[in-house]
Amino acid sequence: MTTPTSTATGRRWGRFALHYVEMIIAMFAGMFALGMLESALGLSISHDRQPDLAYLLMAFNMSVGMAVWMRIRRHGWASTLEMCAVMFVPVVPLFPLLWLGVIDGGALMPVAHVAMFPLMLVAMVRRLDEYAGCAH
Questions:
Q1: Which residue of 4, 31, 52, 103 has the lowest C-beta tally within 10 Å?
Q2: Confidence (pLDDT) at 130
Q3: Exposure string (b/e) for 55-94, b if CB count within 10 Å is 16 or more?
Q4: What share of the chain is helix, strand, coil (3-state, %, to 5)?
């Protein structure tokens, strides 16, 4: 038997999980759409020759996708910019390792991308009421 409280809690976490999935989809949509546009315009940056710049451009593209979706969902600018910052945070410790030759561009991309997912969750938990649908 479910209680009204447990049902409300389940809906709350369901909205939170849905928003997390939406953020991932928006992130990839921005990355692919803007990446294809850059390629079509001849503005692509080589991941092999300039992995740091290529990563920053990719993080920007992902941020645009997420920011657009978050603003459509009526999130505030503070939470939108926090989520965008999460796309750039993983490279703070990784860029020095890249520049020192400890890692290469082939390692930079997957490590940074994997780090984004838990960092997105941290940003979302920080504003749980907003991402669980209670602050809209």
A1: 4
A2: 87
A3: bbbbbbbbbbbbbebbeebebeeebbebbbebbbbbbeeb
A4: 75, 0, 25
